[in-house]
Amino acid sequence: MSGVLNMISFYLTTMKTAVVVQFQYRVSNYLYMLGMVAEPIIYLVVWTTVARAQGGAVGGITAGGFAAYYIVWTLVRNINIVFTPYGWEARIQRGQLSGQLLRPLHPIHYDLAYFAGWKFVVVFLWLPIAAVLALIFHPTLSATPTDVVAFALALACAYLIRSIFLWILGMITFWTTRVSAIFELYMALELLLSGRLLPLTLLPPWAQTISNFLPFQWTFNFPIEALIGGYSTQHLLLGLAAQLGWVVGGFAVLQLVWRAGVGRFTSVGN
Amino acid sequence: MQPTIHVVDLCKTYQVPEREEGFGAAFKSLFRRKMRAVKAVDAITLDVGQGEVVGFLGPNGAGKTTTLKMLAGLLFPTGGTVEVLGHVPFKRQRDYLRQMTLVMGNRNQLQWDIPALDSFNLNRAIYRLPTKAYRQMRDELIDLMGVSDLVHKPVRNLSLGERMKVEIIGSLLHQPKVLFLDEPTIGLDVTMQRKIRAFLAEYNQRHGATVLLTSHYMADIEALCKRVIVIHHGKLLFDGNLSDLAAQFSSYKTVSVTVEDPALDLSAYGEVITREGERITLRIPKAETSRVTSRLLGEQPILDLTIEDPPIEEVIERVFAQEAVV
Fold this sequence. Notes:
The complex is a heterodimer.
Chain A (H helix, E strand, L loop, with lengths): L1 H22 L2 H28 L3 E2 L2 E2 H17 L5 H9 L2 H6 L5 H31 L7 H26 L2 H4 L3 H14 L11 H8 L8 H8 L4 H36 L2
Antiparallel strand pairs in A: 1-2
Helix pairs in contact in A: 1-6, 2-3, 2-6, 3-6, 3-11, 4-7, 6-7, 7-11, 7-12
Chain B lengths: L4 E14 L4 H9 L2 E15 L4 E5 L6 H9 L6 E6 L9 H4 L2 E5 L11 H11 L4 H15 L14 H13 L5 E5 L7 H18 L2 E5 L3 H7 L2 E6 L2 E7 H8 L2 E8 L11 E6 L2 E7 L3 H11 L2 E7 L3 H11 L4
Parallel strand pairs in B: 3-7, 3-8, 5-6, 6-7
Antiparallel strand pairs in B: 1-2, 1-4, 8-9, 10-12, 10-13, 11-12
């Protein structure tokens, strides 16, 4: 029990530290949020224009539907910001991993806690932006309390899935020193197959089939649709179970790669 | 009694990629990379007892940091055995990591953007320290280092020396029993070096910690370590008291005399190293010291005479030059 309490204490302290660090950079926070909003606004303007040009809808999604999708997208995207392979590269090249290996704690806990803490600042800054976007684009949203609960859980799982998979990708640095090229490829696939670029229902059937076997859609499309898609409770539960499966499976792979990677790191040194 | 650090025939060999200079060689290395085995540590055996402060000396590339990293658990040895506090370091068991620390003078572990106090609190959570014990230890270390005005500033706003002070505090909050210190005073001014030395000596006294210290500043070693271990090209050259190092490796003594006439020529007695007014310093082969000093006293108007071992820096230089395996 004391182990769990200690871990909770660690997470809370690290999250607080992340918030304190973010408060040091007020201007950079505002600029970051502006940058984060630019991408969905482009998608939103494009798709609402196309929807209106096609008589009000594209693939069954109305202009209001697109507005709801991309406004929720902004929150999901912010929650999905995690420790990236670029961070891994820097961590290994600058020798920071050594310090983390000497702590009596798996380093992933620090990354999970730190980036989770960061979300408090991000969500706080996101609220007025979402309000302004809603006023401009008039989203169609009729979520039930069940949808809201499922959305919250799906967001947490999406955060875990993306953290785990980008950690696994980042660990390639143990073998290659540089991982940027693979990360770029990952990002391209994610952009297309996650629901980040456009709702998955607008993809051709073959692409939707492929996306079913990859983790991407569970980090973007599912959380968004959990809130705005009018899913049945069964559909929501199945989706959450699938996310949990990716979390458990991903974590198992992460542990295997971590052991092999650390084994190599401690053989080669830095 | 079981030594705190027990090392037998410790070895570490790195596989290092190498190629000739130029575009052609770079292109060829895309397809076929040439590797060379470099023996960084070569069959080192040593024991360090509880509470000992041992200086670990060697020129750049001697294998000091590699050895420290193996002792800390950051590197997997290619041969030999290591035990620290009864643990095999490379297994990095949590119980072991909670009892040791590795401070590297050129590495920063504290959060850059926030005051050190916030980073200390994070370390409390990482090492699962009870709040009361943590605060007590934190305040004791801050007081001992004299940095109460620095711990409220963001780390990025501190000077190099100030940062090192708070880094050391951060690494000792969990009250480690073993300290591996790799160049903790590197790049610091003399005052700052002295302050950190005094702090480490006091910490060792109060908490009975075992310390293995590398430094290129002999003043650090002389102030803190009775015992020194010297390695070069990965091999152990000397393990013993600092005072014995000079006795073993220096083949001469320095004889300083005070004379009435500053122009007096003493070159017939030995190599004149310095001449500062009435004080003349000679270098004399160790075996001839007593004979030459008797002659000096008998033949010259000497007011005062002292015989000393040469400065430790010179001895160390000589050790590295000889590379004799002891």
